Amino acid sequence: MNFTADDVQARFWQTIPGWVAFLMKIRKILVRPFGLRGQFLASPEKFAEGIYNGKGDGYMTVPMKNHQETVVKLSDKHLHSYMSVYIRAGKDNTDVILNSTVQYHNRLGKIYFFIIKPLHKLVVTSMLKRALKELTAKG
Question: Left if phi > 0, otherwise alpha if psi is -120 to 50, otherwise beta: which for 129?
């Protein structure tokens, strides 16, 4: 394994499949009337830079990171979303564990996540597989 938790987090946000990008465009239109952030990522490169330097980028912060784990926090007025990438290296294999947690600020956050929850696991799983495929192909 030649990658870190930072690498997985950065690649995760830089390798958005076309169908997910399409869903995000629909999301942008639908959340605008509620005053939520329409732009999911202003720049995947700046987002990745914020992960590596631990300072974040815009509404993304890095509340915790060490050699095995990087946690990213996305904040909006309706909820905070946390995503942890943890790398557990064993003798014969390496496990990459992704965990996401949501903290609601209000009823809008609960309603929003209730609506997106059915797709959330599919989207995250797809993006993680894609990121790991690219990282393992690199080296």
Answer: alpha
Half-sphere exposure of 82 (CA within 13 A, CB side): 14
Neighbours of 19 (CB within 10 A): 11
Helix-strand-coil split of the chain, %, nearest 5 = 50, 25, 25
Residue position matching structure tokens 């294999």: 93
pTM for this prediction: 0.87
How far is residue 130's CA from residue 136's CA, in Å, rounded to a whole number?
10
Indicate whether 44 pLDDT > 80: no
CA distance 42 to 110: 25
Tell me which of 128 and 34 has the higher pLDDT. Answer: 128
Rg (CA), the chain: 15
- Reading the block at residue 4, the tokens are 């870190």
Distance CA 27, CA 46 (A): 21
Amino acid (one-letter) located at 128: L
